[in-house]
Each structure stands twice: as structure tokens, then as C-alpha cells.
Amino acid sequence: MTWVYRPRTIVQLGVGEGLSSIVMLMVATLRGDGDTRLIGYDNYAARSVGEPLSRAVAERNLQSYGVRRFVELREADVLQERCPIGSIDLLNVDIDNTLEKLSQLRALGWFDAVTSDGLIIIEGGHSRHHGRAESRGILRFCELLERAGFQVMAVPRYPGCVLARPPLRERDSY
After folding, report:
1. Mode of pairing for the β-strands spanning 88-93 and 71-75
2. CATH topology for 2-169?
3. What's the rounded mean pLDDT across residues 108-133?
4. CA-CA distances (angstroms) from residue 141 to 1, 33, 108?
């Protein structure tokens, strides 16, 4: 997606070890997009998914792949923080994607900060692992987005993902 969309401002919610961030930024550097920046959030101290993880792991990985200079890491709980970024070209959500958490992110303005020609990627849109028998509400969240005018495409097979585009704003219409 970073090859096609050429985002300037990428926001990664749930950086973890930094692997998604590394891939997105490596593509940007291959294209010569030196002004791309990634703002990454993770609540390393109280992660709800996976093993406990230190921020140092992400820092080391970003440095190893030569993309650290493009990244601003913020250690924060995005479920408690109103979106402080005015304009996001690519929002990559990689947290424990339950209906409740995604709805909370939306209420805090994270989805509304995405530009009208931007893109939202929600990783892990479906789960049949760890004893979960269904989508954790991701498909219901997709319905809510569609009702709000977002264009949505869900890939509901494990691990799944959702791609969404914000509603076209009147000032951006043709």
C-alpha cells in the first residue's frame, strides 16, 4: 500500500517489534520518498496482545533496517488518547481489534484524521486462534464504517485484514 499511496504521514497503532513499520518505510525509501515519516504508538508496559515487549526491541529493529530516522515512537495507550495528529495519509491499526476497541479509536478521532484520499489498514481482522471462534466484532465494525460512508473491504480469513477509505468530503468531490 505504501508503494501505491505514497503516504507522507503514516501512523502505526501497535508498533510491537516494528516489523510493519520497517516494511512500510523500506518501501518508501525504495521509492525515494525521503520526507515520509511514521509516528508509531505502543503501550509496551501494558500490552493486551502477545508477549510483553520492550520498546528497545522496536528501536533496535528500526535501527538495524536503516529506517529509524523516519520514525517517532510514542509510548502511550491510544485507547485513552484523543488523536493529536491533524492529517494522516495511512493509518495502520495493529492492536487487539475488538469491536469495542475499534469503536473507541473511532470516537477518539483516529479514523477522522485520515485524509480523504488516505487509507486505513486494520491488521488481524479475523481470528480463529487462541480459542476465539469468530471475528471479534471486526465485521460489525466494518458495517459501522460503511454506514458512516467509508469504503470498506474486509478479508475475513485468518489472519485477515480490513482496508478502508474515509468518506469523500464535499470539498474534495469532483
Report:
1. unpaired
2. Rossmann fold (3.40.50)
3. 79
4. 22, 33, 15
